[in-house]
Amino acid sequence: MSTSSRLGVGVIGAGIMGTGHAAAAAQNPRADLVAVASVPIASARTLAERHGADHTDDYRVLLARPDIDLVTIATPDHLHRQICADAARAGKHFIVEKPLTTSLDEADELIAVVRESGVKAMTSFNHRWIPSYANAFDQITAGRVGTPVMAYARKNDRIYVPTEMLSWAAETTPAWFLSSHDIDLVCWYMGGVPLEVVATGVKNKLVGMGIDTYDAVQAQIRFDGGRVATVESCWIYPNSYPTMTDSFIEIVGTDGVIHLDRKAEQVEVASDGAFEWPRMAIMPTIHGKQRGAMADAIDHIIDCVLDDGEPLVTLESSRQVTAVLDALHASLASGTWEKLR
After folding, report:
1. Phi, psi for residue 238 in degrees, rounded to 5
2. 268-287 residues labelled b (16+ CB within 10 A) or e (exposed)
3. Most CB atoms within 10 A, among 144, 185, 266, 332?
4. Which residues are CB-contacts of 247 (< 8 A; sequence separation ≥ 6)?
5. Closest CA to 35 of 16, 51, 19
6. Which residues, in sequence order, are CB contacts of 321 under 8 Å at separation 6+?
C-alpha cells in the first residue's frame, strides 16, 4: 500500500466491463489509473492510451508494479480465481467482476488466500448500488413489507450476448453469467440462509449454432424458515427485443410486495429503425463521465482501501452466491434437489 492519499489502480481485462472499470478509476479523485493488462495487447493499448496509462499483455507485470495498490479484474468468468489469488499474494487489493469463481472449491481456496494476505477484496455485485435496488433493501430492512417469504428474479439477454458479445459463452452458462447478480440480490433481500436448489435447463438453439451451453435455466432455492425464491436466466431472446437485458425482481413479504422492473429506465427512444429503452443504471455516461452502479462500486472499494473500511459485498456473501450456483449446476446434472455445500 502506497503512503500517498491517492490509490494506484490497475485494470485487468479491456472488454466492456474493463472499459467501464478504467473510466471509473480514471475519474475518481482519490485514485490514479496506472496501467491496463489484457490479451490481446491491442485492446490494452487502446484503453490505456485513452486514459494516459501504461499497458501490457501480462497481468503479472501489472501486479509486480509498486505504484499499483488496487486491481480491478474484468476477465471471463472461469478465469477469475487464478488472477485474484495472484493479486492477493502480490499484496494488491482487488475488485472482481461477478461471480467470484465458477467453482465452490476454488472460492474456498481463494478466500483462504485473501484472508492470509490481508488485502481488501470484493466481488462487483454492482446491482446493490442501483438506486431502486438499494431503496428496496432499505424498505425491507425497515419492515415495510413484513418478513420476505418469496422472491422471483429473471435476467434474460438477447441472443447477441452468447453469439457475438462473448467469445467464451461455451465456457459458462446463463446461470453463471446472468443469475449471479440476481442470486446475490435475492439472498441480500431475503436475509436468510439458502439450503437447497433444484434446477431445470434447456439446451437447443445455441447447441445447434455450435455453442455448447444452456439456452435457459430456471431454479428454485429453498431458504431456512420455509422461504423460497425462483431465479430464471435465458439468453436467446431475439435481437429485436428493445433492451439488451430483460430484468425483473419481485419480493413478496408477509405484509407487502416490491416489484423492480428494469425494462424501462426513464428513457424511451423511437427512431425509424427501432423502439429502444437505453440502459442507464449500470454504466451510463453523464456529461462525459462514467457514472452508475459500476462506478459507484469501484468508488466504494477505493474508499474502503484508503479509509480501512469493510466492503459492502463480503467474501462470505460472494461465496454464498457461488454455493447456490454450484448446487444449481449439480441439480441440472442430477435432476433432483441438491443441498448447498
Report:
1. -65, 150
2. eeeeeeeeebebbbbbbeee
3. 185
4. 154, 155, 156, 261, 262, 263
5. 51
6. 98, 99, 100, 123, 125, 180, 183, 184, 187
Nearest in space to 169 (alpha carbons), one of 216, 217, 202, 206: 206
Domains and CATH numbers, the chain: 7-127+289-312 (3.40.50.720), 129-282+321-339 (3.30.360.10)
- CA separation (Å) from 192 to 8, 123, 147? 37, 20, 11
Residue 142 is given by DSSP the state: T
Strand, coil or helix: what is 100?
A: coil
- Chain centre to alpha carbon of residue 90: 23
Closest C-alpha to 98, from 79, 81, 77, 121: 77
C-alpha 37/C-alpha 55 separation (Å) is 6
Interval 62-103: pLDDT, tens: 999 999 999 999 999 999 999 999 999 999 999 999 999 999
CA distance 15 to 27: 18
Q: Which helix (H) or strand (E) holds 311?
A: none
> Which string of b and e fits 109-144 if b means at least 16 CB within 10 Å?
ebbebbeebebbbbbbbbbbbbeebbebbebbeeee
> What pTM does this model have?
0.94
Is 134 in a helix, a strand, or coil? helix
Nearest to 314 by CA among 195, 184, 194: 184
Distances 191 to 125, 128, 148, 186, 247 between C-alpha atoms, Å = 16, 14, 8, 8, 21
Other CB atoms closer than 10 Å to residue 226's CB: what's the count?
8
Residues of the chain with pLDDT under 70: 1-4
- Work out whether strand 289-290 and strand 285-286 pair parallel, antiparallel, or are unpaired: antiparallel
Q: Are 246 and 154 in contact (CB under 8 A)?
A: yes
